[in-house]
Please model this.
Amino acid sequence: MSKLLKLLVHNLVMGIAAGWVTLGGLLFINIGGLRDILFASSDPILTLVLLAFGFTITFGSLAMGVAIMTLPYDRDPGKGGGHKVRGLMARLQTGLPGIDTHQDLVPVPVKHKS
Model:
C-alpha cells in the first residue's frame, strides 16, 4: 500500500471516529431535542443509522481533504515543484489581460426612508 493511500485511510478512520464522537456528544447533550426526536420516530434505528452515515461522510471527507491540502510539496526548482503556483501568483499580482485588478471604490448614495 502506498504512503498516500495509508495517509488517506488513516485520516478517513480518524475523521469517522471524530464524526461519531460528535454525534454521540450531540445525542448525549440532546441539543435541540435531537435525541428525543430521534427516539420518538417510528424507526429510531434507521434514523440513527442515516444520521451516523451523514456524519461519517462529512467528517471522513473533511479529514481526508485536510490531509491532502496540508501535504508538503517539493520546492526544488530543478524538479518543477511550485512553478505553477508561483506563475499564477505573479500573474495575479501584475494583473491579467482584460481584468482590472486595481479598481477604485466608489461610494453609492443611499436614500433613507423617512
User: Anything to note?
Assistant: The chain is about 65% helix and 0% strand.
